[in-house]
Amino acid sequence: MNQDPGRPGPDVPPLGLLLRLAHTRAAKTFSEALRPYGIEGRHFAVLMTLGGVGAQTQRQLIDQLGSDKSSMVRMLDDLEDRGLAIRGPAEGDRRAHAVELTDAGRETLAATEKVAREVTAQLLEGLEPDEQATLTALLARFVARGPHPKVE
To answer: Which one, of 38, 33, 35, 27, lies nearest residue 104 by Cα?
Structure first.
């Protein structure tokens, strides 16, 4: 009996392990590429979110990135210490803090988005262009259908 070409063979690890191994490879490669900028992947996620949608409350960032409050506070402390983001009172809610990028944060985001594209190309170089597009589309759908993971 021939195996279905769309199904992995018996020697392929379960999906959860494959995703974990893929994440580990991607995170390590991206972390190494971000090192010269003094940030980590978790910082990049915050910069990218703020760059895409503008100022956000800490609660909005927590919800969008699937973080928890204490991890988000640490990430924002790091970004403020590096001069990449600032926190201030949120418009219309004195209890909330709004976070926005500084000029240095926008510059770092622009540079690290280029790094992200280069790392993506490096990680996908073993796949044909149509496979790259399919993998990216499937992962985007997979992530969109579930709860957002915690970024730590």
So the answer is: 38
Whole-angstrom distance, CA of residue 61 vs CA of residue 57? 6
Alpha-carbon separation of residue 51 from 16, 26, 86, 104, 152 (angstroms): 31, 22, 13, 12, 19
Q: Could you tell me if 102 and 83 are in contact, meaning their C-beta atoms sit under 8 angstroms apart?
A: yes
With H, G, I as helix, E, B as strand and everything else as coil, classify residue 92.
coil
Convert the pLDDT of each residue in 105-130 to its tens digit. Answer: 999 999 999 999 999 999 999 999 99
Q: What is the layout of strands, in order, in the sheet containing 56-57?
A: 56-57, 93-101, 85-90
37 neighbors 109 (Cβ within 8 angstroms): no
User: pLDDT tens digit string along 69-83?
Assistant: 999 999 999 999 999
The β-bridge relationship of strands 56-57 and 85-90 is unpaired
